[in-house]
Amino acid sequence: MTKTTHTCILFLSYGCLATFSHTSFAAEYAVYGKAEVQIASTDTGIMRYAEEGTQIEAPYSRIGIKGDHKLNEYLSAVFKYEVQVKGFEEDDTQEPFTARNTYLGLKGAFGEVVVGRNDTRFKYSEGKLDNFNETQADMAQVIAGQDRLGDTITYTSNYWHNTQFSFTYAPKDDNKDDKAGFAATLIYGDRNLNNTPYYLSLSHVDSLNNITASRIAGVYKFEQLQLGALYQHSESVDGSKSGNGYVLSASYTLDKWVPKVQFAKDDSTLRQASEATQWSTGLDYVFDKQTTAYLLYTDLNLEEQDDSSVALGLKYKF
Questions:
Q1: Neighbouring C-beta atoms of residue 299, cutoff 10 Å
Q2: Based on CB atoms within 10 Å of each CB, which residue in 37, 42, 191, 197 is the most buried?
Q3: Residue 40: which CATH number?
Q4: Per the domain annotation, does 11 fall within a domain?
Q5: Closest of 58, 63, 60 to residue 88, by C-alpha
């Protein structure tokens, strides 16, 4: 008899809640998330992820649960359910949650296959390149292909000699481009820079969210210095738009201080209405692995209009 059954019998007269034991079901799971608050002042409000004027924001705050359940000696079920939490903000009290990565699948010696909403493997290929991820200075401001799509199948292999392959597939009937689409990525090195000081990826996306593109990205960490670079050629599925994009990033760790800078440029007009150039600089203060305070400034230049934003923020990961 399982521990859960004992618990239910013991409290039968009071009603049994769904109490599940890690031991009984051989499951491992974790509740995680990020709470973030930011005070930002934005000039004209034409850039994505920021509104004109001075705003209090909760950029990409989220909560989720993820885990795996061992089915037998060969297979485990894996899952993730994650939502963005916007309830910090007065305007979002009616709809405080939006969908993020949410999927269910299997993993084993073959790797992992999941079905649901997930970052495309093209987006996944950026690794730790973006110094301003999930802010108004995010490289997605100008670089296309940073997509999280529903109704997809994602395969990720296990690492073999520091090499990993991953693949996203969207069936025709579930793809907004009205044709089957895919993204494929080959990685060499540790994406999180924990096991190797380098990371290199080659990636291609075809007919996902109105983009067909190829990119090469790399990150190298030498002691306190971290450098990153990306080149991408993009075009719309109908061929009406095309161009090249670049990202260069650098950061340097000085005890708890991390100054950083980033440059991004793209002329495909897939993300902005014209050729776009963005310069960003910032300073992080890392209290510990979970808590970071930051100051950033970003400047977006378009052919007919410019925008800039300065922000002071605090984020806590749990």
A1: 17
A2: 42
A3: 2.40.160.10
A4: no
A5: 58
